[in-house]
Amino acid sequence: MKRRHLLAAGIGALAAPAIARADAKYPDRTIRLIVPFPAGGATDIVGRMFADKLTQQLGQTVIVDNKGGAAGSIGAMEVKNAKPDGYTLLVATSSTHAINPTAFVHPPYDPIRDFTPISSVCVNPLVFYANPSLPPTMMELVQLMKKDPGKYSYGSAGIGSIVHLAAEYLKRSVGGMDVVHVPYKGGAPAIRT
């Protein structure tokens, strides 16, 4: 079975040298870099920086194409269904290649069989932030949320995204608290509200 190219998000160097060695004529046209989340979030920022560097190193235009939704599955499916010629790449995340394939009963793709890893690019930390009017420490905030069940909410990049799972883990690890999850198509829309 032919496999697609995948650009993995993790620690490492740029993938350009590996791609350039694959075929002496590659690339001879524009490369599409699918970012499986909306513009403005962490994955998009990393994807755009990578696309700029890749364009410089390959001497061929690399365009970013944001395909947000379903915690990254829509963008991953776009790459899975693309011609496996190296001209459609994916900025993969923990959501697209670890969480989604294990969280869905019938995942729409196999992260190993349907993709070929090229290179790790970066690691994005999870950061907790809140409105400045709320308590300044995590424990004070947890106490406040436990005191007023259902009053507070948090946004994530979608159901099953790493932020959603981290928040659910936090809720469970502090003995449970009723905080409303508001899923968005990506991190940037969640931050803007």
Describe the structure.
There is one protein chain. With 193 residues, the protein is of the alpha/beta class. It folds into two domains: 4-120, D-Maltodextrin-Binding Protein, domain 2; 138-192, 3-Layer(aba) Sandwich (D-Maltodextrin-Binding Protein, domain 2), CATH 3.40.190.10. It is 36% helix and 18% strand. The chain contains seven helices and seven strands; from the N terminus they run βαβαβαβαβαβαβα. It has helices at 16-22, 42-58, 73-80, 94-103, 138-147, 162-173, 187-192, and strands at 4-8, 31-35, 62-66, 88-92, 115-120, 153-156, 180-183. A five-stranded parallel beta sheet has the order 3-2-4-1-5, with helices on both faces. It has a two-stranded parallel ribbon with strand order 6-7. The longest helix is centred in the first third of the chain and has 17 residues, at 42-58. Residues 9-20 have low confidence and may be disordered.
CATH arch. level architecture of the largest domain = 3-Layer(aba) Sandwich
Spatial strand arrangement across the major sheet: 3-2-4-1-5
Number of domains: 2
CATH topology of the largest domain: D-Maltodextrin-Binding Protein, domain 2
CATH class of the largest domain: Alpha Beta
Q: Radius of gyration over alpha carbons? A: 19 Å
Shape: elongated
